[in-house]
Each structure stands twice: as structure tokens, then as C-alpha cells.
Model the fold of this input.
Amino acid sequence: MTQGSASPSARNWTSYYDAVGGRPPRETLLKALGAFETEGVSRGHAIDLGAGSGRDALELLRRGWTVLAIDGEAAGLEELKRQAAAASQLQLLKPRLSLFEELQTLPPALLINASFSLPFCHPEAFPKLWYLIAQSLLPGGRFAGQLLGDEDDWAKEPGVTSFTRDDLDQLFSGYQIEHLLEEKKKGTTAKGKSKFWHLYHIVLQRRAS
Done:
């Protein structure tokens, strides 16, 4: 469940999965995994929020992590399962079909990944989702992903959650910021549609306290 079409109100996730199929894992995920490796941690349990067809989840599986892959579209999870089975990694994967707004709990996790997916959680449901993420992350655990800035072309679309830079200070309370890159640029979506991007690329570590 990630960015895909000309606007978030007219998404076609199947065509999005086709467009991003075979692309490497997101840089934020790799940064989080690299930080764990410097601590001597090579694997653990991860949650991939908006896993889609597995761009990031497959990298976690390849490294031996167990992954709870959550997405609101069955087509993406089926493709993820197919690729995991082909790589003999299906035993490490637990797919869950669910919208973010429907989630009531998340299990304990060392890593929560949400690449370009959290903006598509409805603004009224986002505080609860962010609370669940905080409750799920073990002390020293990490969050990796993206949030949408308020200047993004999609920011005023119905059902999209976005943030100003000042909003992040309160949102990140209880975390150590390990990576925060604010990006503003004209570009295209994965399907080649023109848009203005305003993004925050984030890696956070949950403080032990």
C-alpha cells in the first residue's frame, strides 16, 4: 500500500505493483538495517505496514527476519507470498489483509517499516496507528519510512495525512532521530505522473525509557 497513481483518491494498486516490481528496497529500510548491524543485530521480528508486493519485505526475509506483512490489498500480498515461496522463505512470512484504520493491536517488533504508506491512513485514524507503532516497538527498536509534508500535491486530498516540519517534533517524542531528510521537488509518481513531492524520509529509534 504505497504511492501509486496520479492522486491518492484514484489509486490502482495492481498497476502500481507492476510499475515498482523488481526495484530495490527503500533506502530508509537499508539505513535501519545497517544501524542494527552496527549493534550486532542481524535479524529479528519486523512489521511491514503497507507491504504491497514486497519491495521491502522480501529484503527482510532474505536477511532472515520474520515479517508480519500488513496491507489492505489482497493482490499485493498474494504476489509477496508467491515470491517468498519461490525463495523458500514463506515460513518467515505472516501476511495480514487489513486497512490501517481497522488495526486494533500490533505485536512486539524490533523493526516497523512503512515505506510511503502512512500518508494513506485517514487523518482521523492516524493518531491511533502511530500509538500502536509506539506500543509495538521494543526498546531500542526502529521505525523506518516516509511521511508526507504539507506542501505535497496530495496533502489536501481527502483521506490523506500530512505534516508540517514543526508537527514532527511532537510526533517523534520518545524517539531518537537517526535520519530525517526533508525532500521538496518536482517529480513523477512510480507510474510516471507529474507531481510536486514534499516528503520526510525517516529512521527513528525507540528510546529505552
